[in-house]
Design goal:
297 residues, 16% strand
Length: 297
């Protein structure tokens, strides 16, 4: 009997380990909410953590050490004292670089269109068949985006199934009245992020992400110059991206995540290589121009 119980326990633990694809760290902040008892925010934080980390998102078995590091920081700006919340959500994810302790940022965005209903102690329900709630849909959406970006950097266009799953969530959310899911909600929202990632117009950027990480960053532990030269050869791909198209969100997401890293990579290049990269980045990403101008020093 004891052996049977032990085997059952081991099987349960193994299943839980396999089921976890994300290593999500969750913070729920509420500095603007003036109430004495903030327990609801603590239970919300726990519920979000359990939802993201306890669910099987990917199609592949993921070892504990392979789980994708990500951060969700939910800043509650308004609460009606009952079940209705509004706020902003900062989402970040990264992937390890081969042979180093360095992690490369893949996603760093602030979603300002967050509103949802949650009751303390409530189980957060989700199905990919229809829209059940905004909180679960938002978290499932970003879980798929995070996994898709990670897969894209290890296998060319490997993230496609997860971007399609995110698109399904967007489609299901069209029946809701919540913001951030529709094309006319703005040019920087969940609708356009999903649209860009599934639009072949942005395949050059997705292709760049794969080669940049696998044939560039992942080589730099053994040979910095070789890895940087590989990235040099990829830079023309960035010029193929139409940044002026309505809803062109993916280039913005890319440069927000990568501008600091690009400066770091080219700060160690020779003078001509450094200036060539600087001029290209200034043209393609003027919003981060001050960062790139440090390359001329």
């Amino acid at each position: 009997m004891k052996k049977l119980l032990l085997c059952t326990l081991l099987m349960f633990l193994c299943c839980r380990t396999v089921a976890q694809d994300l290593n999500a760290r969750i913070q729920v902040l509420s500095p603007k909410i003036q109430v004495a008892n903030k327990r609801v925010f603590q239970t919300l934080e726990t519920a979000m953590k359990d939802f993201l980390n306890g669910r099987k998102w990917s199609a592949d078995p993921i070892l504990p050490q392979e789980r994708i590091d990500c951060n969700f920081v939910l800043n509650i700006t308004n609460w009606d004292g009952s079940s209705n919340f509004t706020g902003e959500l900062q989402v970040q994810s990264s992937r390890p670089v081969y042979g180093t302790s360095y992690t490369s940022t893949l996603l760093n965005l602030n979603d300002k269109d967050i509103s949802f209903s949650y009751t303390e102690g409530q189980t957060i329900d989700y199905t990919d068949q229809n829209f059940q709630g905004n909180l679960s849909s938002i978290m499932a959406f970003y879980a798929n985006i995070i996994i898709g970006l990670d897969y894209d950097t290890f296998s060319k266009f490997g993230g496609t199934p997860y971007f399609l799953a995110a698109q399904t969530i967007v489609t299901n959310a069209q029946t809701s009245s919540y913001g951030g899911w529709k094309a006319f909600d703005g040019n920087v929202n969940r609708y356009w992020l999903s649209e860009n990632l599934n639009n072949k117009l942005y395949n050059p950027l997705r292709s760049f992400l794969y080669d940049y990480h696998r044939n560039g960053l992942d080589l730099m532990a053994d040979n910095v110059s070789k890895g940087r030269k590989a990235i040099d050869a990829l830079l023309p791909l960035l010029q193929q991206i139409d940044r002026q198209r309505v809803g062109a969100m993916l280039p913005l997401i890319f440069y927000t995540a990568k501008s600091d890293e690009l400066v770091s990579i080219y700060s160690k290049a020779d003078n001509q290589e450094r200036l060539t990269a600087m001029n290209l980045f200034l043209k393609l990403d003027p919003a981060n121009g001050n960062k790139y101008q440090t390359l001329q020093k």
